[in-house]
Structures are given as C-alpha cells and as structure tokens.
C-alpha cells in the first residue's frame, strides 16, 4: 500500500528510457525505496520496493542522461529545474550573519507587505525538507493588519469561552493524567497567557499577533510528520529576514485550536482545514525597532555520544 497523505494515496510510476540510460548506477544509489538495479549495463525497475515510489524525485534529478521519468504523487518531469550555481548560493559567513542578526520582532511599521515579497517567502519555504513527499504542509496567509487583528480578536473570544480549560478544578483533575511537567506548564504559562491575551485585547492591545501586517500559519494534517510545518516555518522566517523583514514565531495559538467542538468551529471559520500535531504561526513586517547588539545563545546541552 502506498504511503498516504491528504494529497495522494497512490504510488508514483517510474519509467526508464533504456536508449538514454548509460548504466551509471546513480539512480540505484539514491533510491532508498530500492526501485532500481543494473542489468546488462542498463537500469531496470526492481519490482521489490519497500513502500512503492514516494515521488521524492531523486532518481530523476540525479540521472545524468535524463533517462528517468517519475509521474504521480503530484510530481512530473516538468518539476525539474536547472540548479542555481554554487557560487550564487549563500556561504557560511553570509548565512551566519543572517542568523545572528535576527531578533524576534513584534513592533512593526504601518506598512503593507508587497505581493512579490509574500510570494518570495512562499517560494523559499516550499523548498523545505519534508518527512515524506508530497508535502502535507498547509499555509494560511493573513496578508493585512486588518486580518491579523480580526484573527486575534476571534482567538481571544475563543479563549474567553475556554477559560474552564485553565481553571483550578480542571487542572487538578488532569494532573494525574498529564503529569507534573504539563501541570507546571499550565499553571506557570498557559493560564497566565489566557488572561494576558484576553485582558489586553479588551483594552484594544493585541498581544496575540501584534497587529503584524503579515502572518502565515504553517500546519499539517493528521498524516503530516509533526516536524514538517515547523521546518517550513523556519525557512519562511529566514527567507523573510533576507528580504529585510522582521519576524517572530508564535507558538501559543496552534495547540489551543486543536481539540474540541469550539476549536473546530474556530478552525472552520478561519479556513484551517485540518488538525495536526504541530503547527506554527510566523508574523512578518518591516521592523519599527533597531537592535544595536546581538545576543549570544546557548543550547541546554551539546554532548558527543561515546
Ligand atoms: C517555537 C517558538 C514559539 C514562539 N512563540 C512565541 C509567541 O507565541 N509569542 C511571542 O511573542 N514570541 C514567541 N516566540 C519568540 C520567542 O519568545 C523568542 O524567540 C525568544 O524570546 C528569543 O528571542 P530571539 O528570537 O530574538 O532570539 C516563539 C519562538 C519559537 C521558536
Ligand atoms: S541514473 Fe540514469 S543513466 Fe544512470 S543508471 Fe540510472 S537511469 Fe541509467
Ligand atoms: S522518485 Fe524517489 S522513491 Fe521513486 S524511484 Fe525515484 S528515488 Fe525512488
């Protein structure tokens, strides 16, 4: 059976042009589904894959003779393009400068984000690696301050309706089931966050998405590898940074709109098609603040395995 996603439940089909094939064996090396072998100096289809072709496209992209065609699972030969030159790709110093200059920006100029810039962010984000092709990441785009504010107002109204979720009796009831760390997180972070979001919105202050002129919500489906939306959101964030925008990831919204009838109504109202284990908002805008210094960060640990 093919590996299912929301976009396809079929395997892709492989065809080899034996006339063109030089028998170099590159396709055999790169296909981790073991769809190829070499016989009489020509690539042949093994017929004994692990899952069936997932349409990663690697064989087609690596073949020096252009002898392979994959079609299905949203991929075809038309999806191949000429690689940008290595000399045109950012080097480590350039990337490090981009990474280390970044700060989470929550103060934005009152300036719309141009269509072309939004498209460039999406063009970059869609290159992200994914657990299994075709990507099962969905992107909801809020492309004006009016939309981010409307979303935040609705979100705060939704939280106001869900206050029981952080009430003393509910947390006491859940503690034996979800354990000490969750209990600590709910009491120390989620409960105060509910109050901060709701109270500030009542005073007209949007601490949910800061009235950013652009937000993107990267989310999956019940099939998606949970890391996929996060990886795509990260690529989008750095692409936007390279285009001169300030960005901030927002983690609080996604987990709160996953479960229950009211969350379903909220998702439907805002065109969010699926629930997923992980999802992440990123807000974007031209920054209204300028940082003078970078800030050194550390990991909790970096251990080399014995
Ligand atoms: C997964 C994730 C979720 C985040 N969620 C929020 C959020 O909901 N609201 C917010 O203001 N900042 C959020 N942030 C931004 C962090 O607070 C910020 O990264 C941190 O304060 C460090 O600042 P820096 O990004 O400038 O290094 C989030 C960051 C990440 C990586
Ligand atoms: S990579 Fe292309 S040329 Fe090389 S063996 Fe496979 S099909 Fe033939
Ligand atoms: S597309 Fe990927 S899975 Fe399919 S045959 Fe080529 S390398 Fe193998």
- What CATH architecture label of the largest domain applies? 3-Layer(aba) Sandwich
User: Which structural class do the helices and strands define?
Assistant: alpha+beta
Name the CATH homologous superfamily of the largest domain.
NADH Oxidase
Q: What order do the helices and strands follow?
A: EHEEHEHHEHHEHEHHE
Top CATH class of the largest domain: Alpha Beta
Which molecules are bound besides the chains?
flavin mononucleotide, iron/sulfur cluster
Q: Overall pLDDT, averaged?
A: 96
Main beta-sheet annotation: 4 strands, antiparallel
Radius of gyration: 23 Å
| CATH fold descriptor of the largest domain | NADH Oxidase
Helix percentage: 25-40%
What is the overall number of helices? 9
Short précis:
The protein is an alpha+beta fold and about 300 residues long. The protein has 9 helices and 8 strands. The strands form 3 sheets. The chain has a 4-stranded antiparallel β-sheet with strand order 5-6-8-7. Strands 1-4 form a two-stranded antiparallel ribbon. Strands 2-3 form a two-stranded antiparallel sheet.
What does this structure look like?
36% of the residues lie in helices and 13% in strands. The two termini are 39 Å apart. It has nine helices and eight strands. A hairpin with a 2-residue loop joins strand 2 (36-39) and strand 3 (42-45). The chain is an alpha+beta fold. It folds into two domains: 13-79, Alpha-Beta Plaits (2-Layer Sandwich), CATH 3.30.70; 84-306, NADH Oxidase. Helix 4 crosses helix 7 (228-242) and helix 5 runs antiparallel to helix 6. A four-stranded antiparallel sheet has the order 5-6-8-7. It is globular. The chain binds flavin mononucleotide and iron/sulfur cluster (2 copies).
